[in-house]
Structures are given as structure tokens and as C-alpha cells.
Design a protein that fits this description.
The protein is of the alpha/beta class. Helices cover about 40% and strands about 20% of the residues. The strands form three sheets. The protein has an eleven-stranded mixed β-sheet with strand order 1-6-7-5-2-8-9-10-13-12-11, with helices on both faces. The structure holds 6-O-phosphono-alpha-D-glucopyranose.
């Protein structure tokens, strides 16, 4: 593998950086050209966008896996970011990534929506790989650097890193929910995972309830005790909770847990929503579907947490009851391929595709299709065109850390039209309170909400959309990363926070 384009092989693996992001995935994807050559392209997605300005301002590096098993890639530079690849073998991918991360932690942290599997071999691999990430980070972090670790795949990194490098400041952000202690307690390695996280100075969660769940679990299952911290003379509020870790040991430190709801790059989505080519494409999509009165849209990774089956069931019943007809309504379901080697994801795909076939078989006419199902990923331009084409956006997740699709949809609706049906079990529901909020398990409630959204009056729709747009525009992803990093630096300056 070689790096081209605006990338250059650094050949200076001994360089150190003041700011280091650590994530399972790198912020770049390898793209193979027609002539067989390869280059790196910036990955789409909020986290990469959010951290780009921070990377530019600081002397920043990103430590992560490059996505190809059994390949070692030398550190290189891409734009303003120094890339430090961590290698994973085929076995690591199977045990640490597909196994422990995505078949143990993922279902456990999403309210056991699927049954988590507990295997000691997976745990051993998770530990080994977390250590590899911590060691790679310890090598590239400058003295006193700030390190920001991302997500559930790397929960042991904060403590491991603190043990090797007590001089660095460590933040951690959990992008997915943190479950109630009653569910978390099923994990055979619960104490080690909590202690891993407690190595951080600041732990960020999507919702206040996630931060609270973590603190309850830590108090119950580890030796940490609750503590009070005063930051810049301001006493702590209920929003943030502090824990004293390892009291009495020289490594004792305070760990603060707090909610920092992640968001999107509103500037990018809004600009695309106003781009004439994208607006044209939206018109074309509607035309190709035969200009139905109502287009409903679902956009998800094909994941069992997203409530795609519940959504299809509600839509099918609305057609069967005659509340909607294929002449007037069409559901577009984009389901992007995800974790396809994990059993539960394979089974889900078969089930969803079977259900779509069943609905279309029952309700299609020669000229109309009930559900347009697309098992693809699309570039952001096409996504925004779909948002513009859709009258009703359906976000019916059974559990979701945040759900950025909901935020993208409202951002794209520049003329304040459209309606959002949003599951109350998403982090986004804490902020987008003017959506048609639903409990997706309640199929009758879901059907009523979909009908209400399809028949909402223009003024009511505009009032709701205006208020949700205001929320997202004042809380974008740059605000998210700035808030987290400012808090982290305030905490490390706070008196008594650091125990030398
Ligand atoms: C969620 C997780 C991310 C993960 C993404 C895609 O958003 O919070 O950490 O990267 O899903 O999943 P994948 O397994 O493809 O990385």
C-alpha cells in the first residue's frame, strides 16, 4: 500500500505531537484507482470534520486502524493530519472488532436489542489490541500532550496509557449509549472495562443519562468514590459528576463524567441543500418515483438497533388498513452495508430483504412500488438530495447514542418544510423535541405518528422545523469538539485535579 495525492510518507515515526486522537478507524479511507494505484481520501463523517480545525491548529496526529487486515502501513501525512496506522491481523479483526466490539459490547450497550455473546478469547484479543493502541499512542504523544480516545472499541486505552504516560491529559468520548448498571453488570469483565475508562481525566457521553449510568456502575463495581471538583471557581452541577480513582495511591486522580451531545457540520449540509445541482437531483428523484404526494425516507446503517423492521411493519399496516396507498405514498429505505461478517447482521439483512419483498409483492402495482430498498452507501450530495426529496423522515431506532441522520435532515430543510418522526430512544430526542416523538415498539403509536407527520399542516410543520433547526444550528459539531476540549483543559488546570 502506498500513499499518494496530498499524502506523503513521513518516514519520521519518532515524531511526537501535542494533540493525539485515537480511534478504531483512521480519518482516511484507501481508494483504489482504475489503474490499480491507491490513494487516501478523507473519510466522510462528523468526527473527522469536527476535528479537522483542531488538527490544523495543534500539532495533531491520529492513531487508528487503516481498515485492511494483515497489512502494516508506515506513518504518513494527509493534509494537516499525521496518520499513525495500527495494524490488525485477520484474527484481531475477527475477535477484537467483529467479536468483542460488535457482538459483545455493541448489543450490550444498546439495551440488549440483540443477545450479546461473551467469549473469553474475544476479551483476550480486545485487551491485546487495546494495549497495542495505547503503546502506539504513548510513542507519538509529546510530553504533556492532550490525547482524545474515541468510542467503545478502545475503552481500556485511557488506563493503559496513563500507566505508561502519567504526564499526558486524557479525554475519552463514548459515541454509543452507556447502559444501565443492571444490564452492564452482565459483562464478565465489567470491572476491567470500567477501570480502563476511569484512566481518563474527562469522560464524555451523548446523554446525561449515559454519564449517570456510567457513574452508578463505577461506584458500584470499582473502588472509585464520588468526589467534588471546583473548576474555575464554579462548583460542580448535577450535569457533571466526578469520581476519585485509586484514592491513596500516587496515581490517584479525578475523573469527570459529563454529557457532550455530538452533532453535524451544519455548514456543509446547508450549503449542499442550497446547491442548484442537489436541488435538481431532489426534483429528479421525486419525478422518477412518479411524483407521489408523500415520500417517506429511512437512512440507516443496516443495524438491528435502527428499528428498520418496526418501521416496515408500521408502513405495511398503514397500506393494509388503507390509510396510505402506493399511489400516494412511497417509502425509500437506504440501508448501508455494515459489519457484514457478523452473524446477527447477516440474519438481519435476510429478514429485512424478505420483508421488503413481501410488502412489495402484496402492494405494488405495475407502475408503483411501495418500498424502494437500497443496500448501498451514497456520497453526502446524494444523501442531501434524498433529504430534500423526502416529506417525512423516519428515525425509529430502538436505541441510538445520538442519530446524526435526524440532525442532517432538519438542517437540509432550508425552507422549513418536512416532518421528522423520531424515536425517543435516540440521543437526538433530547434535543429535537419538536419532532413527532415515538416509542418504536408501539406499532400503533408509530402508525399514528407517521400519519400525523404525513398530514401535518404547513404552519405546524414550519413551526416545528424552525425550532429544531435553531437547536442544531446553535449546537454544531465544531461546538461539540470545542466544548469537550475546553472542559478537558479547564479540568487539568483546576486546583487539586492533578496529583503530582
Ligand atoms: C458507530 C460507532 C462508530 C463506528 C460506526 C461504523 O457510529 O459509534 O465507532 O465507526 O458506527 O461502524 P464500523 O464498525 O463500520 O466502524
Amino acid at each position: 500500500m502506498h500513499a499518494e495525492d496530498n499524502s506523503s510518507t513521513a518516514g519520521e515515526s519518532s515524531r511526537q505531537f501535542d494533540f493525539v486522537v485515537v480511534a478504531n478507524r483512521l480519518p482516511v479511507d484507501r481508494v483504489v484507482d482504475d489503474d490499480g494505484g491507491a490513494h487516501w481520501r478523507r473519510s466522510p463523517g462528523g468526527l473527522v470534520t469536527a476535528l479537522a480545525p483542531v488538527m490544523q491548529g495543534a500539532d495533531g496526529a491520529w492513531v487508528g486502524w487503516h481498515g485492511a487486515p494483515d497489512e502494516t502501513v508506515e506513518p504518513f501525512t494527509h493534509g494537516d493530519t499525521d496518520i499513525v496506522p495500527v495494524a490488525l491481523s485477520t484474527e484481531d479483526v475477527e475477535l477484537y472488532y467483529e467479536g468483542f466490539s460488535n457482538a459483545t459490547l455493541w448489543p450490550l450497550y444498546h439495551d440488549v436489542t440483540a443477545r450479546p455473546e461473551f467469549h473469553r478469547t474475544w476479551w483476550d484479543s480486545y485487551r491485546r489490541v487495546n494495549r497495542r493502541f495505547a503503546e502506539a499512542t504513548a510513542k507519538v504523544a509529546a510530553p504533556g500532550a492532550t490525547v482524545w480516545v474515541q468510542d467503545y472499541q478502545l475503552q481500556l486505552v485511557p488506563r493503559l496509557l496513563r500507566q505508561i504516560r502519567p504526564d499526558v491529559t486524557i479525554g475519552f468520548f463514548n459515541h454509543i449509549p452507556f447502559p444501565p448498571p443492571e444490564i452492564f453488570a452482565q459483562l464478565p469483565w465489567r470491572r476491567e472495562v470500567l477501570e480502563g475508562l476511569l484512566g481518563a481525566d474527562l469522560l464524555g457521553f451523548q446523554r446525561t443519562s449515559d454519564a449517570r449510568n456510567f457513574v452508578r456502575a463505577a461506584l458500584r463495581l470499582t473502588g472509585a468514590s464520588s468526589a467534588r471538583v471546583t473548576v474555575e471557581g464554579k462548583p460542580q452541577t448535577g450535569k457533571s459528576q466526578s469520581l476519585m480513582v485509586d484514592p491513596g495511591l500516587p496515581t490517584a486522580h479525578l475523573c469527570v463524567a459529563e454529557a457532550f451531545p455530538i452533532s453535524i457540520d451544519v455548514g456543509q449540509i446547508e450549503a449542499l441543500a442550497k446547491d442548484p445541482a442537489v436541488v435538481d437531483r431532489a426534483r429528479q428523484i421525486r419525478h422518477e418515483l412518479g411524483n407521489p404526494r408523500t415520500i417517506l425516507l429511512g437512512v440507516d446503517r443496516l443495524d438491528y438497533t435502527k428499528g428498520i423492521r418496526h418501521r416496515l411493519k408500521a408502513f405495511e399496516e398503514l397500506l393494509a388498513d388503507g390509510d396510505l396507498t402506493v399511489e400516494e405514498a412511497c417509502l425509500i429505505q437506504v440501508a448501508s452495508p455494515s459489519r457484514e461478517r457478523v452473524d446477527q447482521y447477516r440474519r438481519l439483512r435476510e429478514e429485512i430483504e424478505g420483508t421488503v419483498g413481501h410488502i412489495n409483492g402484496a402492494f405494488d402495482t405495475l407502475g408503483r412500488t411501495a418500498v424502494r430498498y437500497l443496500h448501498h452507501s451514497y456520497p453526502v450530495e446524494e444523501m442531501v438530495a434524498l433529504y430534500l426529496a423526502a416529506d417525512v423522515m423516519l428515525v425509529t431506532a430502538l436505541r441510538d447514542g445520538m442519530n446524526l441522520v435526524a440532525k442532517e435532515y432538519v438542517t437540509a430543510r432550508v425552507d422549513n418544510t418536512g416532518a421528522l418522526v423520531l424515536s425517543e430512544f435516540t440521543g437526538a430526542a433530547d434535543q429535537l423535541k419538536q419532532a413527532f416523538l415515538v416509542n418504536p415498539h408501539d406499532i400503533d403509536g408509530l402508525k399514528s405518528a407517521i400519519l400525523a407527520a404525513t398530514t401535518v399542516s404547513r404552519p405546524d410543520a414550519a413551526r416545528r422545523m424552525r425550532s429544531m433547526r435553531r437547536q442544531v444550528f446553535t449546537h454544531d459539531v465544531q461546538g461539540w469538539s470545542t466544548a469537550f476540549l475546553d472542559r478537558l483543559s479547564d479540568l487539568t488546570r483546576a486546583e487539586g485535579h492533578r496529583h503530582e
